[in-house]
Amino acid sequence: MQREDEQQLEIAERQSQLIVPPLNFAMIAPGIYRSGFPNPKSHPFLLQLRLRTIIYVYDGDCQDYHMQFIERNGINHKHFRIAANKEPFEEMDHALVAEILAEVLDTRNHPLLIHCNRGIRRVGCLVGCIRKLQAWAMTAIFDEYQRFSGTKIRISDQEFIEVFKTPVHLDAQHKPQWLAD
Amino acid sequence: MQREDEQQLEIAERQSQLIVPPLNFAMIAPGIYRSGFPNPKSHPFLLQLRLRTIIYVYDGDCQDYHMQFIERNGINHKHFRIAANKEPFEEMDHALVAEILAEVLDTRNHPLLIHCNRGIRRVGCLVGCIRKLQAWAMTAIFDEYQRFSGTKIRISDQEFIEVFKTPVHLDAQHKPQWLAD
Predict the structure, then answer these.
(1) What is the per-residue DSSP string for B16-50?
(2) Whole-angstrom distance, CA of residue A33 vs CA of residue A55
(3) What would the mean pLDDT of B127-145 be, rounded to a whole number?
(4) Catalytic residues of B
(5) pLDDT on residue B143
(6) Stretch B149-162: mean pLDDT, rounded?
């Protein structure tokens, strides 16, 4: 017999209503998630995350259905129009990346989702920069980048992460506890 | 001039002392991390996570240096001796997997790290089962599994995740808030 304070999780029952996370969804650190562009099927999943903020990094417009979802649910939306790295001459704007990082690392915006379109390149570079701020070894940073890019690694992205050193201005009262001094 | 309540994060300064996460480290959900076997270089990183519990899933002994680290830091250690799936006949023990999941999904153990040796197969299967409890679509579950296995996908692992349906007994007072009813 089941104890009163015990709950039995039945997979068959739970899977009767499937939940679809956005492409390349993952948790980066407490309060911060990453993904590709959410399609309508992933909206119930996003609601479960109780997001306060969604940050979109892409140099094009945001889809209407997604903007409507965001407004309907009172989520704070920030759109940074930033181009991806492109060999041999074009590079993500370092100052703009530092500005985006300051938003991502402000706990007043958490829980937060940062996404681009496929959740690989722009977001991969931003996550790489967060890992540098956490002082991760480059081996681990590149390994995480490649986990999402698979065989589509871009040397220009890895190079960007490696050379990025623009200071990031954080509000000392609202920086994440896990970002050690 | 820098405002008093503002902090400037200088990457060059922060990277003077590199931090090495364990192999295949990632955050699964609030309070739960996954990885391969931590080597001594990754101990400072583990301390930053302020872990309450480390769960080791492997059918062999734990390394002495790691047990010493765990005892020295007052971390709760649980070792489940479980063999990996192996075509065509050997399969992870379903009842034992349900027992491990109940520990992983008990917030009294959080923050928690679950690890095997390479952080790919045993942990990949356990994470897959957690995703089933979250009602994730199999597409997303397999995609996450493959992010860590790369080209070393094991059909036996994916099959295990797909067929697993043993009920998991949780303490209703201490289950994660993100595990929706």
Answers:
(1) TS-B-PPTT-EEEETTEEEESPPPGGGHHHHHHTT
(2) 10
(3) 96
(4) 116
(5) 96
(6) 91
Model confidence band, residue A121 (pLDDT cutoffs 50, 70, 90): very high
**Beta carbons of A27 and B25 less than 8 Å apart:** no
Catalytic positions of A are 116
**Mind telling me how many Å the CA of A147 is from chain B's nearest CA?**
5
Q: Which residues of B touch A48 (CB under 8 A)?
A: 178, 180
What average pLDDT does range A92-116 have in this prediction?
A: 97
Q: Establish, for the pair of chains A and B, how many residue pairs have beta carbons separated by less than 8 Å.
A: 135
Tell me which chain B residue has its CA closest to the CA of residue A169.
B8
Q: How far apart are CA A167 and CA A46, in angstroms?
A: 31
| Residue among A3, A5, A6, A11 with most chain B CBs within 10 A, to mutate | A11
**B93: distance to nearest CA of chain A, Å?**
17
Q: Any idea which of A47-61, A102-116, A166-180 has the lowest mean pLDDT?
A: A166-180
* Strand order across the B112-115 sheet: A76-80, A53-57, A112-115, A32-35, A26-29, B26-29, B32-35, B112-115, B53-57, B76-80
Q: Are B57 and B114 in contact (CB under 8 A)?
A: yes
DSSP state of B66: H
How close B56 comes to chain A (CA, Å)? 21
Q: Does A9 contact B168 at a Cβ distance shorter than 8 Å?
A: yes
User: Is 70 exceeded by the pLDDT of residue A4?
Assistant: no
* Cβ within 8 Å, pair B17-A135: yes
What residue ranges in B36-153 does DSSP mark as E strands? 53-57, 76-80, 112-115
CB contact under 8 A, B165 and A11: yes
Burial class (CB in 10 A: 0-12, 13-18, 19+), B96: middle
By percentage, how much of chain A surpasses pLDDT 90?
82
Residue pair A114/A82 in contact by the 8 Å Cβ criterion: no
pLDDT at A29: 97
**Stretch B97-108: mean pLDDT, rounded?**
97
